[in-house]
Amino acid sequence: MNINYNQNEKVLCIEITEEIDHHAADKIRRKVDNEITRYMPRKTVFDFSRVTFMDSAGIGMIIGRYKMMKLIGGSLEIENVNESSKKILEMSGILKIIPISELKMA
Fold first, then answer.
1. 50 lies in which domain range?
2. Reported pTM
3. CATH code of residue 44
4. Are 25 and 53 contacting, i.e. CB atoms less than 8 angstroms apart?
């Protein structure tokens, strides 16, 4: 997992580089929670460009981080989602509360 923080814009970007299943979700959750607590960002962005698989544990991890960001007055976004992960997000109803942005070219 790659984590970057933009001090000027107060944006925490988290590039998830592994599958998000019940084994990885807890590890991701702990790392992300530590970074959110450390930086107190206005916005946290999950970059899913390298996520090849996600199950219901990933949904729980995302919802928990969404709630954490709301508690500190921030927001959460997801970007670069592949079709299979997008279907899971749609079925869960997450897309009603968390926006997905399209691929950002560097």
1. 2-101
2. 0.90
3. 3.30.750.24
4. no
Half-sphere CA count of 18, side-chain side, radius 13 A: 12
Q: Does some domain include residue 106?
A: no
70 assigned to some structural domain: yes
**Hey, what's the torsion of the CAs at 45, 42, 59, 93, to 10 degrees?**
-100
Q: What is the pLDDT of residues 29-54, one digit of tens each?
A: 999 999 999 999 999 999 999 999 99
Domain count, the chain: 1
Residue 17 structure tokens: 């580089």
What was the pLDDT predicted at 101?
85
> What is residue 103's predicted lDDT score, i.e. its pLDDT?
56
- pLDDT tens column, 66-97: 999 999 999 999 999 999 899 999 999 999 99
> What are the distances in angstroms from CA 44 to CA 14, 21, 23, 25, 84?
8, 21, 22, 17, 22
